[in-house]
Design a protein that fits this description.
With about 450 residues, the protein is α/β, with parallel strands linked by helices. Helices cover about 40% and strands about 15% of the residues. It has 17 helices and 14 strands. It has helices spanning about 5-15, 30-45, 65-80, 100-110, 125, 150-155, 160-165, 175-190, 195-205, 210-230, 230-250, 255-260, 265-275, 310-315, 335-345, 395-405, 435-440, and strands at about 20-25, 45-50, 85-90, 115-120, 140-145, 280-285, 295-305, 355-360, 370, 375, 380-385, 410-415, 420, 425. A 5-stranded parallel sheet has the order 2-3-4-1-5, with helices on both faces. A 5-stranded mixed sheet has the order 10-11-12-14-13. The longest helix is centred in the middle third of the chain and has 22 residues, at about 210-230.
């Protein structure tokens, strides 16, 4: 059984006095169903799971939107009693029954004491549909992503190293042997990514070839999903964008780089679909002149990262011998380093919030500059520069700090933890601790 960090949010939701039905959003195969079921069996006397894709007969239970009528029908068909306060009703693949999504509103209004969780593949497409009325204010949403590096450590049995990471302070002297081991594990995480089935296989067998087979199968599954949310004429654009994304990570996104012979409008539609499916995360340019960052962002100037670094590597067909070299993060001109940092920033975003990523750039003939990521920590704008292999100058980072009159910048690399003047150097394995470390350095 794989423990996920989102379980702490699930427990908070379970014990709320003003609880609403909960929707879990996330890409295919990030572990939504298994996470909910594993957690629920520990905290409820009974779990009644309705999978609308596998058992479409349950759709008939939602012709009437009255919650008591619904659970009576489900109980009769499933031959199980649903006890308010003791049972969890889990509506899986709920996108197959839009009427069940509408019913969530009435569970909140008429039967709030019943614990109800919904999840589904490509659920975002139903929720974003212009024909669908989202029960706004009547549901809560949590976002589940691939495993973070810290979750990876837990999954493969390195709980002591995770504890060490979470107790590391700004003045902690990290022994070289631990630093080296954590960098080595970060390289492993880069190759494997954070998809649960891959990590489970690695934790069980350590067989990298089998892990790659699972990654390949996952990518094939994503491609087959295109038919579920795209018209036949859109397929070729989705396929093209999907194939090209790994080679375009960390670059300013230009539709001409995807396919110079296709219209930008068609490719833009395909990219939007992949974003809704949580397969791609845009990284938008922001002026970063104040908060919120979205207030000065430019949705026409952006970069992209893939859902998962392991899948990105596999989709790019990089051979295994390359993957454990010391200069791993220099592969693709450092793009993998930006992918890892972006993925980790997404992974540690509060599950209640929709992840958003930003970068900063200044395009001037004599003074161009770019900072890889800009984030907000405890109300303060923090620029983040990613330096693969711990090399490279920080000209853009210093320029940003000077121009915005900010007190602190962050460099993420393979170098040890260190605060030098107004630059906090953070090793890759400590990205999850940025809020604490930045607060101590500010």
């Amino acid at each position: 059984m794989m423990k996920r960090d989102i379980e702490s949010e699930l427990l908070l939701w379970k014990d709320k006095h003003n609880r609403k039905p909960l929707i879990i959003l996330g890409a295919r195969q990030v572990g939504k169903t298994s996470t909910i079921q594993n957690w629920a069996t520990q905290h409820f006397n009974s779990v009644i799971t309705i999978n609308f894709e596998a058992e479409p007969k349950f759709k008939e239970c939602f012709t009437d939107l009255d919650p008591q009528t619904i659970i009576n029908k489900i109980g009769d068909i499933a031959m199980r009693e649903i006890v308010v306060g003791e049972s969890l009703l889990f509506l899986d693949e709920i996108q197959e029954c839009p009427q069940a999504i509408l019913a969530l509103r009435y569970f909140k209004e008429k039967l709030p004491a019943l614990h109800v969780i919904a999840a589904g593949s490509l659920l975002e497409f139903t929720l974003n549909s212009g024909e669908f009325r989202m029960p706004v204010g009547r549901v809560e949403i949590l976002h589940l992503k691939p495993l973070s590096f810290k979750e990876f450590l837990t999954a493969i049995g390195h709980t002591r190293l995770r504890d060490f990471i979470e107790k590391t302070e700004l003045n902690t002297e990290i022994p070289n042997v631990i630093h080296t081991e954590l960098i080595k594990l970060m390289h492993q995480y880069t190759v494997l990514g954070g998809m649960p089935e891959v990590i489970k296989e690695y934790a069980t067998s350590g067989n990298l070839v089998e892990c790659q087979r699972i990654q390949t199968t996952t990518l094939i599954t994503y491609r087959r999903d295109f038919g579920k949310y795209a018209k036949q004429t859109e397929h070729k654009y989705l396929q093209r964008v999907f194939e090209k994304i790994p080679s375009l990570i960390a670059q300013h996104f230009k539709y001409s780089k995807v396919d110079p012979d296709s219209r930008a409008r068609d490719l833009r539609g395909a990219l939007d679909m992949l974003t809704w499916a949580n397969i791609v995360y845009p990284v938008y340019a922001t002026v970063a002149s104040g908060l919120p960052l979205i207030g000065t962002s430019n949705d026409k100037k952006f970069k992209v990262i893939f859902l998962d670094v392991g899948l990105a590597i596999r989709n790019g067909s990089i051979d295994l011998p390359w993957l454990f070299k010391e200069d791993l993060l220099l592969v693709n001109r450092g793009a993998l380093a930006e992918q890892i940092v972006g993925q980790e920033l997404v992974a540690y975003t509060w599950a209640v919030e929709e992840p958003r990523l930003y970068f900063w750039c200044r395009e001037m003939p004599s003074s161009s500059a770019e900072v890889d990521y800009v984030t907000v920590i405890k109300g303060q704008i923090i620029p983040i520069e990613v330096k693969a292999g711990g090399t490279g100058r920080l000209k853009s980072l210093h320029l940003f700090l000077q121009e915005k009159n900010l007190p602190l910048g962050v460099r993420i690399s393979e170098l040890p933890l260190k605060l030098e003047k107004n630059i906090l150097s953070v090793p890759l394995y400590l990205i999850g601790e940025l809020p604490r470390l930045v607060a101590a350095a500010a």
